[in-house]
Amino acid sequence: MLVLHGFWSPDRGLRLWAEDSERTVTSPSQAVRSARPHPFAASEDTLAGLGTGTLGEAVLQLPSLARSPLDSPELVRATPRSAARSRPALLPWRVATLDVPPADALAWLLAVADGVDGVDVRGGNDSDVRHGASVGYWADVASWAGELVDRRRVLPAVATDAGRPVALWRPALQGQDVVAFGALVAAMPPVCRAEPVHSDAHELVVTAVQTFTDVGMRRSMGPGLDLVPPRRGRRPRQTPTAEAWLAALTAPNGHFEADPTEVDRLGLELASWAEVATGRMGPARATFRLSEIEPVAGDDGTAVAAAEEDSSDGTAVSPASTRWRLEFLLQSTTDPSLIVPAAQAWADDGSLRRWLDRPQEMLLGELGRASRVYPALSAGLRQARPESVELDADGTYRFLSEAAPALDEAGFGLLLPAWWDRRSRLGLKATASTRRDAAVTGGSFGRDALVDFQWRLAVGDESLTDDEIAALSEAKAPLVRLRGKWVAVDAEQLRRGLEFLRREPAPVRTVAEVLALAAAHPADVDTPLPVTGVAADGWLGDLLGGSVGGGSGDSVTRVEPPATFTATLRPYQARGLAWLSFLSTLGLGSCLADDMGLGKTVQLLALEATQRAADPQAGPSLLLCPMSLVGNWEREAARFAPALRVYAHHGRERLRGAELSQRLATTDLMLTTYATATRDIDDLAGHDWHRVVLDEAQAIKNSLSRTARAARRLRAGHRVALTGTPVENRLSELWSIMDFVNPGMLGTSQSFRTRYAIPVERHGATEPAERLRTITRPYILRRLKSDPTIIDDLPEKLELKEYCRLTVEQASLYQTIVDDMMARIEGSEGIERRGNVLAAMAKLKQVCNHPAQVLHDRSAIGSRSGKVIRLEELLEEILAEGDRVLCFTQYTEFAEMLVPHLSARFDTDVAYLHGGTPKKRRDELVTQFQGDGGAPIFLLSLKAGGTGLNLTAANHVIHLDRWWNPAVENQATDRAYRIGQQRRVQVRKFVCTGTLEEKIDQMIEEKLALANLVVGDGERWLTELSTDQLRSLFALSEEAVGE
Known about the structure:
Layout: E1 2-9, E2 13-20, E3 36-37, H1 44-48, E4 54-64, E5 89-99, H2 102-113, E6 129-131, H3 133-150, E7 154-161, E8 164-171, H4 176-186, H5 201-221, H6 241-248, H7 260-278, E9 284-292, E10 296-297, E11 303-304, E12 324-332, E13 339-341, H8 342-346, H9 359-373, H10 378-381, E14 388-391, H11 393-409, E15 413-415, H12 418-421, E16 426-433, E17 450-459, E18 462-463, H13 466-475, E19 479-482, E20 485-488, H14 491-503, E21 508-510, H15 511-519, E22 531-536, H16 538-545, H17 571-586, E23 590-592, H18 600-614, E24 621-625, H19 627-640, E25 646-649, H20 657-664, E26 669-673, H21 674-679, H22 681-684, E27 688-689, E28 691-695, H23 706-713, E29 715-716, E30 719-722, H24 731-741, H25 749-763, H26 766-776, E31 780-781, E32 797-804, H27 808-826, H28 830-849, H29 851-855, H30 866-880, E33 885-889, H31 892-906, E34 910-913, H32 919-930, E35 937-941, H33 942-945, E36 956-959, H34 966-973, E37 985-992, H35 996-1006, H36 1008-1017, H37 1027-1034
Parallel strand pairs: 1-6, 3-5, 9-15, 16-22, 23-30, 23-31, 24-26, 24-28, 25-26, 27-29, 28-30, 32-37, 33-35, 33-36, 34-35, 36-37
Antiparallel strand pairs: 1-2, 2-5, 4-5, 7-8, 9-12, 10-11, 12-13, 12-14, 16-17, 17-18, 17-21, 19-20
């Protein structure tokens, strides 16, 4: 196993090194003052296998013992190292490095930022490669730099490199970007500063962001882009400096030839220009507030200088007399809620000086800079004490559409009318009408079916009437009131829209064209105005609205499975079958994302059985799933669809080449694992599959992994993804699954990141989130068990906390660990501190389970653990009632202690399943437990037994220790609480009173936002708590110890 680490060198860029768990732990040398070779750092040959780059060497200061560096928290060894007996210190070590070229470094780090774990520098994925905290940090820096490029927060510049002029792109930071930059500097892990010659965090982040910005900007412009305007007449003998500089901005390395004096002059001009664009960071900035001037009553009582009201028939009227005021303000850069009107600044009596020195000078300077961006401000600056400027309708529109974006880019504040931010834009709305002669059945429609189609001018999602269009044309004003709302109407856009409607009536379109239009991003549609919506009626409207399969759409008829299908589908499952069949007939992929336990397996088997009964000549389907589920699919197919010819393709004896082709000729459904499919992809990709199905499709959530790339290579007429969690942490996971289901529908990975992931995940943008929901809604069907309209016959689930007290022995060990680990935590920082916190967490959780687990001494269980004592009490009651129970633990060592103890204590068999259990034995354990003669107690490791099993014979679930991830615990509980369960399920979670278990449980219960964080990050969030918070968290309360 390798753990990759990275540090930044201002002159060499990203430098990678790695720890190798297979190498010797200690150094043969005891010389602590000079740099020794790092004993378990990866070799040059190993690093060279990770990708392109230059091999080198570096000396790093690392937390160490006398003869060995400490392991990073991410390093896992087959045999754990013995506990340290001395206090760590920072010592120098020599490591081999791989210096990655800037373009490759940016691409790789962006992949890491998208959540792709184990990806090597070439873009491959290796499960034996993990990332250290430093790699994650530089990925965040690269991602932020990429976001600056996406938002075009960059400026061209000129510098010198080894005496040669070079054109480059530099970040233009203003406002919140400055705050974000400071946060990045402050968050740098100490391991990123391990190279003594480059240990200044500010310098490292500055140079890294500058490099990534320059590389990212050149990459975004693409090859062949020429910024130099075409020249007329004869070319001069020597290219002018400005032209050479412009050409170099898109060149690979940016170097160009020019006279040094001219380069200096160009540099001064660019610096002056950049100051206008970014300004100088100070305590305040100028902010502009636009508001409509209230009507003033004339002598006769009529309103003057007001917007005319809409006419009675609702048509638009030009507000020619409406006036607007643009007010000047000063806004604090550290506290944006602190805003001072210009009038108050001019009348300052000294009260503002508590946070702003010389406010009048600051205001005038900022207004002068703003006037260079927005010259119309000059009129207001002619006043002795400028406070505001008045604008007419035309000037207001120009300010909103042109000046406001420029002022925002230059770092000024803007307070605009709410209707402008939410404004309904003039655009085109498409409507499609299907035939209403009958409900849709499998053979009466398809992607090539024709529908009536019409474009209409619209404002937002509302189509305009002919009278409204005529009124807008006559108004000839950029701002009008329409249906009681302000609407911005560009005359040229209106003209182009009307011309488009006359030129392209397009009375009919195919279903495929309508679906493509509905899924397209506005930037990708070739129309003169943006497409504001796509509406349809009938079955096509139900599909676009996401009601097919959801119960509210009735235009798609029920699909009846054949007599050979023995299961009775529930109503929602029958709708799911109709939805799957409906999209299959259209040639569209689907993602069935029903809640765990709602029967995704039986719905897919019903689809296979139904379509093969209708078309016996259909080719074989391929289903990929985790190894643990192959047996379940075989059993369920034999039970519910015995007519299906099923072949399980895995193991060393699996068929290949011609033998596989021969077998497929008599196969309806081939089952294989993700690992096998990845290894055999060249063979499997050569077949044309009737359908490819991915069960537990989150297996391809990392789009750059070998598994995801292999899945996308498979050819099929229909693709289906089955998953209960289409998005676990990042929107990139949704992109990966949907790109398999319907390739290209959400664009490229990069465009998706720019259009959706960054705006939604980082900025909480609602518009792209809603657009994404609209696009994906037709192809994702998700129903929840908690919805009574979906399922109303699941028995009650009772969730209880079992509070256990520590024994005296446990309490003594607990306190000893707290004292030892707090001393270590207080004396460490950065990555070493986080490792110590996680180690303390693990030890304290283990001692809460049983002293023997943390001591690793294989001693007797006895009555030494409050949890074991309570477990025995519960099991006695459960077994006396004739019930069965699932017991989950995340620690296999604890489970292995409990199996013989509980078996002897209750004189009964105890089943045990863990990650190392072979498939055959796993299937036997499940079958036996579900049968009449199975063991009444089933111990399972949380990761191995928490998903993919049907264990409804149990009506009790006990979580012996906590994972602190509600999603993981709920998945485990759903092994018993699912369709087929006939009895009330009792779920118990063990919590040791007065220990960190109770305190963390309370934190999660009290803070839902924190619970959401835990879902994504496990226990790592705890490592960021302060030392005082950790001391309080770990402290043993008086009520913790039992009598």
